[in-house]
Amino acid sequence: MTAISVTAFTDTGLVRSRNEDALLVGGWLCQSASGRTVVMTMLADPPFVAAVADGMGGHAGGDLASRVALGVIADVSPSWQSPDDVVKGLQEANDRVFQVGQNPDLRGMGTTVAGICVLDSHVVAFNVGDSRVYSLNSGFLQQVSEDDAVLDGSGRPTSTITQALGQRLPVEPHITLHPRDGTDFLLCSDGVSGMLTAAGLRAAAMQPGAAEIAEAIITATRQAGAEDNFSFALLSVSPSPSQEPHHDR
């Protein structure tokens, strides 16, 4: 049985008073106030889903929104077999967060989400909002998600997002399909990608192993001020059995 190795971290940061980020890895959901790196090895039984959610800062119930969204994904993802299933599941999560947000004390809450669904021969990357998914191959880091964000005059995404889970209108998730060929993935909230330059994040990704990459991201984010909650998960996804080399006996 093949396995997926995961290095995960979520933290309140140096400025915010509570953590509105949350992580889902397999059936494990975490929203820690004081970050501690967690290392796990999990069976790669498809579908295997991991995601990061960032409750919308300044909105009531942001921490609840991220937990609700990931809870729905955890409930529905065991039946995911295709990109269409992923889209449907994210739309269900949007509807549920919206319903919870009808409580007058929680009105306006929402959350971004970004993650991967590992299937037999492919990996489905998905996102709504500006949390990100990167592929990581031999130290080369490439963003495969699409930011739902207003761009500044230089064409760079700002912190103003254009869609999130919890809105009244249906969401339109971004979906990309990748061969399951041994490529690793990095999921992160904008507390990481918004604090680090592209060059800084690439430098962290070039470290020799997951533990070193994680430490480099944590250190660089804190040195940059850690003005937001920040969360990430590094996932080493084993190749599909059909992608693994065969040796003659």
Provide a descriptive summary of the structure in words.
By secondary structure, the chain is α+β, with helices and mostly antiparallel strands. It has one domain: Phosphatase 2c, domain 1 (4-Layer Sandwich). It is 24% helix and 33% strand. It is built from five helices and 14 strands. The protein has helices spanning 62-76, 83-100, 190-193, 198-205, 210-223; strands at 3-11, 21-25, 28-30, 38-43, 48-55, 111-118, 122-128, 132-137, 140-143, 149-151, 157-161, 174-179, 184-188, 230-237. The chain has a six-stranded antiparallel sheet. A hairpin with a 3-residue loop joins strand 6 (111-118) and strand 7. Helix 1 (62-76) runs antiparallel to helix 2 (83-100) and helix 4 (198-205) runs antiparallel to helix 5. The relative contact order is 0.20. The model has no long low-confidence stretch (mean pLDDT 92).
CATH superfamily: PPM-type phosphatase domain
State the CATH topology. Answer: Phosphatase 2c, domain 1
Radius of gyration: 17 Å
Query: How many individual β-strands?
Result: 14
Strand content: 25-35%
Distance between the termini: 21 Å
Give the SSE map.
Layout lengths: L2 E9 L9 E5 L2 E3 L7 E6 L4 E8 L6 H15 L6 H18 L10 E8 L3 E7 L3 E6 L2 E4 L5 E3 L5 E5 L12 E6 L4 E5 L1 H4 L4 H8 L4 H14 L6 E8 L12
Antiparallel strand pairs: 1-4, 1-14, 2-3, 2-5, 5-6, 6-7, 7-12, 8-9, 8-13, 10-11, 13-14
Helix pairs in contact: 1-2, 4-5
